[in-house]
Write a structure and sequence with these properties.
heterodimer, A: alpha/beta, 5-stranded parallel sheet, 15 helices, 31% helix, 17% strand, B: alpha/beta, 4-stranded antiparallel sheet, 8 helices, globular, binds iron/sulfur cluster
Chain lengths: 470, 194
Amino acid sequence: MSELKPKTIFEKIWDAHVVKRATGYPDALFIDRHYIHEVTSPQAFDGLRKRGIKVFNVNRTTATADHNVPTKDQHLPIKEALSRHQVETLRKNCKEFGVELYDLGHPFQGIVHIIGPELGLTLPGMTMVCGDSHTSTHGAFGSVAFGIGTSEVEQVLATQCILQYKPKTMKIEINGKLGKGVVSKDIILYIISKISASGATGFFVEYAGDAIRNLSMEARMTICNMSIEMGARGGLIAPDETTFNYIKGRRFAPQGEAFDKAVAQWKQLPSDAGAAYDVVLKYDAADIEPMITYGTNPGMGMKVTDRIPTVEELKELNEQASFKKSLDYMGLEAGSSLIGKAVDYVFIGSCTNARIEDLRLVASIVKGKKKADNVEVWVIPGSKQVEQQALKEGLNKVFEEAGFELRGPGCSACLGMNEDKVPPGKYCISTSNRNFEGRQGPKSRTFLASPLSAAAAAITGKVTDVRDLM
Amino acid sequence: MAKEKFITLKSTAVPLPVENIDTDQIIPARFLKATTREGFGDNLFRDWRFDGENNPIKEFALNNEAYSGKILVAGKNFGCGSSREHAAWAIYDYGFRVVVSSFFADIFKNNALNNAVLPVVVSDKFLQTLLTTIQQNPKTEVTVDLLNQQISFDGKSEQFEINAYKKECLINGYDDIDYLLSLNKEIREFDLAH
Ligand code: SF4
């Protein structure tokens, strides 16, 4: 292979981390940063114990408790026995193996994909993994980040490497200006609705175009976060001044001269002119409107003002049965509109949309207003730091006056693992990333939307075009 | 750790003609609180198998006495969503050794292969024929021959792809850590230089 061949940012980072490439074997890829949490790590630590080995390099692993923690009374011992045991197991494992843990109550605790970036642990050019599919979030910094299973968590703990085949590359370009009421969540829901929940399987996606370049880091994270919802191995965005400004001065980021040196290196990362992708897709930002999902996978999305497709409109015949099953579950009719549909819960949270900027977006809509009587509204900050910042800015007052409940950080009703569950049959408009059957609690029904759209529904009590409130 | 070895499997199969089966269906999050790998089979497809009162839902394939076997046949994009390996553990623990579909999500495929569950990718057409055949005759035996990468039933057969390295691991019961541990020296050097 000639050194002169133009490379994509993905290829540059990947190739720079291959420790060994042997014919017939997947690449042994070195992992710069490994995040772990209570749910997918206990069996991996057990594996180390059984083999009698240590963590390869504890400085490259960071732990937090997020998936299975209560969001109320976080200072008290966890009530539910199994959850308590799981969090205690994490504590025990981190202590025994010497891994840094941001435990409940720690000022750095929070959803794993929110704390990494805000602490400056996530940096451009890195390879990163976590036993969680939304690890793709970290790609917003121009890094190769992807979710792995527990056996792989064990591999990384034991060897700081993972065996992986290099995925194909896809470039998704969005150019143009976003319309009123349209935010990054709408961009990604739009893309997924176009290419389906499996449309990018086997690919690593690079998002590009001026509509992406104009986004803040937080908005970029929302987009990369949901790459997995179209099946992609991960998604990334080339670093630029926005990236460097976000990182500057963060707790664990390089400081002073080291920072300047790092920036000089990071500037080499963007894809070379003429670099080839296996697939290139282009969309016009002006075509995107506030989005909402109506079905039970994130590909089943539409403009909030659209109608749900009819069975006849489906392209593939053998998809009809699954489509009907999905609408049955949701209690919705094919061909109908969602505008005006009453909702019972509003969930503002998750690694997709629980950063400070998301809470600000919500506050911009609800300030001085009250929630509708028929809805319960939960605001779950993504981390302790986000929570503190919200207090500092007085957002808690806005939420309180609106009748929203502001709780402690964690994954909460994004996955219905702790107490925060949407009851059977109830509708929840959610800023999270998955509308799967039962995702937010057994038989719960989820509409995915942006923080703006969720805020609008909180005020009106029904699915609303947020532009009507702006 | 050495896993069960896989060479050829002949078995009846269970049909699940649903697309985009995500890992939240395979094993809902509320059952992920265990800290070991065992026992997840009881909650495999929990919310499709049991109603709110924990009574089995008769129509669901796993509760249908006509169907049994070590092979699960499912619609396309099987295993999408969460990376939870618990999904692969649940499938294995329940007794399945093969999942057949026309398309698998990436992370699930890796997780399955790491847990002695073979994901077999077949064409859409083959999948539809297989599903209908099992539904019409639940006693249909399906043969999955890993060595020759071939799946067959009722005189019909199709070749399937599997990565040569993964194939070798499955046949010999190896896992990835054994290989990575053998690279220890190279990895140390790499770590120091970065
Ligand atoms: S917030 Fe939801 S999607 Fe994000 S890590 Fe937690 S459970 Fe996973």
